[in-house]
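Q: Can I see a sequence and its folded structure?
A: Here is a first one.
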Amino acid sequence: MKKLMILLAFCSVNAFATPVDINTADARTIADSLSGIGLKKAEAIVAYRSKNGAFKTIGDLTQVSGIGDKTVEKNKADILIIDSTVSDTTKIPSTPEPVAKK
């Protein structure tokens, strides 16, 4: 029973983690908040953001070396992009949608 309580305590910390705004967070915050993102990858995210400007979509993270679709998909519930010019902050681009013919 004691082991179960300890396990539940550790699991609940991550289950209620606050999402992180990747356009404003520092590398340590990103690393602490996202699964599969250590300090080196978080520093790469911050460096990419500094060089290229704010991320427009969560899918833009795949442009950062070492960040792939699986990492983005695994963390999309914990990633925020707070920018009034961005209309869809959760869509991960895949294939372009077909254009309707008239």
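Q: Show me another, different protein.
A: A second, unrelated one:
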Amino acid sequence: MGITNDTNEQLAVSVRTSPPIYTIFPGESLSFSLNGLPGDCTEWELRATTADGVVAAQVGPPVCDGDSWTITQAELDQAREDAGIEAPDPTPFATPTSP
């Protein structure tokens, strides 16, 4: 299973509502194996959550070994709008600009 964070915020990845199993930083990709044999699927539902509790995106069930999941800035923006929670100012991990 591969996950890419294509947002400006750090995300915590968890199975349903369990504690996070991974933290993924902006622009980072990571891969991990699911329980079982290579190529197997599981009935997991993965959630990517921001530091202030907004569920940016979710995938599954099922999720399968070899799947890839990219969390986009557009998904995060929509999730924030739906939740009525604005992005932190400044956005976490944003690159400062010089005057």
